[in-house]
Amino acid sequence: MIHPDYQYDPRAVPQMAAFIENDICDFVLGNRIRTRKEALASGMPVYKYFANRALTMLENFLLGQNLGEWHSGLRAYSRKVLEKIPWQKNSDDFVFDQQMLVQAAYFGFRMGDVPVPSKYFSEASSINLSRSTKYGIETLITLFKLFLHKTGIYKCKIFISQN
Q: What is the pLDDT of residues 104-116, one digit of tens each?
């Protein structure tokens, strides 16, 4: 999956697919953030950089992962991920990507990432500050729903396996 905003370099796709083909990972993300300097030099807005870092640290901590970035629009996933995760019940908005990742962690899929260059320019990213804020809040709501589901307080349909 690659977001159609011309931000991601698709040259990493064969390496991402190889991690799945060689049964190393079930879900692979492109990581745009190797260093703060590089991310900001590529044109990533400062507010997006810091929000990405904060949410990524929280998601890694809460979900027991160690991904370099949780908010990439460059992803590869195996067939078994698509067959197990009830992705059809997810949002049709930007938070869909986060729901997929949280579901993958919940269902125990092996996740990893590879470094990818990215670029930002006026035509590249369609998510502005207000949409970014909504996305961040919806990401936190998804994490809260997982907590409620795991504790049995509320059974959330996006965490009930398709098979």
A: 999 999 999 999 9
Find the radius of gyration of the CA atoms of the chain: 15
DSSP H or E segment with residue 25: none
Amino acid code (one letter) for 43: G
- Let me know: does 114 contact 12? Beta carbons within 8 Å: yes
Calculate the CA 26 to chain-centre distance: 13
Give the separation between CA 103 and CA 97, rounded to whole angstroms.
10
Sequence-ordered strand ranges (E) for 55-151: 75-77, 111-115
Is there a contact between 59 and 72 (Cβ–Cβ < 8 Å)?
no
Residues 6+ apart with CB under 8 A from 50: none
Q: Are 58 and 101 in contact (CB under 8 A)?
A: no
Please write the tens of the pLDDT for every residue from 18-56: 999 999 999 999 999 988 998 898 888 899 899 999 999
Is the pTM of the predicted complex or chain greater than 0.90? yes
Q: What are phi and psi of 129, to 5 degrees?
A: -60, -45
Q: Where are the domains of the chain?
A: 10-159
